[in-house]
Amino acid sequence: QRQASIQAPGPTHFTKAMARCAVELFDSLASDYGQLAEGPTSSPGAKEACHHFAAAEEKLNRLDLEGCSISAQQAADGFKLASFSKGHADALRLLCLAQGVKADLLTVSEQDKSEEVLNCLDAAERLAQEQAATFHDAGDQRSEAVMWLADGEIKCKHDSSEKRRDALEAFRK
Q: Which residue, 42, 93, 114, 156, shows the most beta carbons closer than 10 Å to its own?
């Protein structure tokens, strides 16, 4: 009788928990970039990019994926202009992660959004691969590795989306 009153968490609870797990896998670099922004050697462009990065990560933590994507793109653009490839790569990875979390949220939607999920994952995968090639051509091994990491993270989501959907359907029953 007591067990009958216990309810499984609804899709909203599960969705947020799943998205939070993906966010926690990110390195949480906002504090590092916050300190860099306050450093005396940072150029004004790099400082602004650091602030955009910190804002993007904070928005990701709140699952404001649109805001995260905008801020991450601003950070990536700013770091690129400031010739700071480490920040550029980290911001691009954050942008890919936002697309991956968006795909996670779409996967557990009540409606069939499989085409949208694939579009998100394909766009993130393309971005990661194109940028990995760009960094490779520039001889920037660290940034190239960051992009291959982002690509791998997206591929894990891409390859498991059907299995994840089956598991979620079983969870809802």
A: 93
- What was the pLDDT predicted at 8? 36
Q: Name which of 83, 85, 84, 52 is nearest 70 in CA terms.
A: 52
Residue 42: both structure tokens together = 């940072």
Residues 100, 113: Cα–Cα separation, whole Å? 14
| End-to-end Cα distance, the chain | 20
> pTM here?
0.77
Distances (CA, A) of 131 to 56, 72, 161: 19, 15, 24
- 108 pLDDT band, cuts 50/70/90, is confident
Q: Shortest CA distance to 128 belongs to which of 160, 100, 103, 96?
A: 96
- Residue position matching structure tokens 């790569």: 89
| Listed residue (64, 62, 95) closest to 77, CA to CA | 95
